[in-house]
Design brief:
The chain is elongated. Helix 2 (34-53) packs across helix 3 (94-123). It has 343 residues and is α+β, with helices and mostly antiparallel strands. It has ten helices and 14 strands. It has four domains: 16-122, N Utilization Substance Protein A, Chain:P, domain 4 (2-Layer Sandwich), CATH 3.30.1480; 124-188, OB fold (Dihydrolipoamide Acetyltransferase, E2P) (Beta Barrel), CATH 2.40.50.140; 191-266, GMP Synthetase, Chain A, domain 3, CATH 3.30.300; 271-343, GMP Synthetase, Chain A, domain 3. The chain has a five-stranded mixed β-barrel with strand order 4-5-6-8-7. The chain has a three-stranded antiparallel sheet with strand order 1-2-3.
Length: 343
């Protein structure tokens, strides 16, 4: 019998005498140590023997690598603590031994290949990957990534985005997941890291290190705020991210569908940073209480609703971006009561 990876069965009844040679050849083919594979086969044979004959005690199977002969022993611990080890009949078992060994080898190879893929995935954690939507089950989207299957649970999807089977999709790799059937990896389109990697892909200055992403606040499907800074004097980090005539900004928006993206300048000065974070609203003044990490912001009365945003979204994201609790108040003139937006 040949232990082929295709798992084909020969026309004749398999014989145990061919196991050792086939095992040696296969180990050389796939690069697995012989002793490791031999242990796997012997353990599988012992399990199969117990399932077939249900003998008492612990069963061990030894495969003679020279002759291919099987030695089956049973170990029973008596009530007084002594052990009885005896040979068990194996003639009837030989008919199923070769097929059992073949399945054990194929399963072991599958497990090794899966584990290798998972190790490779771990090395690419946080990177973008392109795949094709395979299916959706109970709200979870499964993505064909080639050697691995991407798993995108509802919380990692952009709300409202339709991901139909067959659609190419860009995702960010989060972490590997163990699955008996195949290598799986958790992926996301809702993570802040996804937006960060999109920026890196579109803005050469970020990859070169002359523009740095300092903070990201995101509500997937709705709005994202990104704070950037430059490491070179005279370089406009926001302009670099927006690109000539907004081409880079539009490329990012096209991947995020209806999600709005604000790119603002990061600053060591908290007043300036908080003011910029509330864009597109213009702040008249910002007062910082470092003890409570609260920023009180005055904006023109006509821009009060713009600064706060729908359902407080603009102020909420600004608070997440800066790390300050933000109170927004109307500046000059009479108008409605002061408004507050908490992070």
């Amino acid at each position: 019998m040949t232990l082929s990876r295709a798992g084909s069965r020969s026309q004749s009844e398999p014989s145990t005498e061919s196991l050792a040679d086939a095992l040696t050849a296969l180990c050389a083919e796939v690069g697995i140590p012989f002793e490791e594979m031999l242990h796997t086969v012997e353990a599988a044979l012992a399990t199969a023997y117990v399932r077939a004959f249900n003998p008492p005690g612990e069963v061990r199977v030894k495969l003679d690598t020279k002759t291919g002969a099987l030695e089956v022993t049973g170990r029973v611990v008596r009530a007084d603590g002594s052990e009885l080890v005896r040979a068990l009949p194996s003639e009837d078992f030989k008919r199923m031994a070769a097929q059992t060994a073949k399945h054990a080898v194929l399963r072991h190879i599958h497990d090794l290949e899966r584990d290798k893929v998972l190790r490779d995935v771990a090395e690419h954690r946080g990177e973008l990957a392109t795949g094709v939507v395979d299916r959706s089950e109970a709200g979870t989207v499964y993505v064909d990534l080639g050697r691995a299957e991407g798993v995108m649970p509802p919380e990692e999807q952009i709300p409202g985005e339709l991901l139909h089977p067959g659609r190419p999709v860009l995702v960010v790799i989060l972490d590997a997941q163990r699955n008996q059937r195949q290598a799986q990896v958790r992926v996301s389109r809702a993570a802040r890291m996804f937006v960060h990697r999109l920026l890196e892909a579109e803005v050469p200055e970020i990859k070169a290190g002359t523009v740095q992403v300092r903070a990201i606040a995101r509500e997937p499907g709705l709005r994202t705020k990104i704070a950037v800074s430059a490491t070179e004097p005279g370089l406009d980090p926001v302009g670099a991210c927006v690109g000539p005539k907004g081409v880079r900004h539009r490329a990012i928006l096209s991947e995020l569908a209806s999600e709005h993206v604000d790119v603002v300048p990061w600053s060591d000065d908290p007043e300036a940073f908080v003011a910029a974070s509330l864009g597109p609203a213009k702040a008249e003044s910002v007062t910082i209480d470092k003890g409570t990490r609260t920023a009180t912001v005055l904006v023109p009365r006509t821009q009060l609703s713009l600064a706060i945003g729908r359902d407080g979204q603009n102020a909420r994201l600004a608070a997440k971006l800066t790390g300050y609790r933000i109170d927004i108040k109307a500046g000059e003139g009479e108008g409605p009561d002061d408004a507050e937006a908490a992070p």
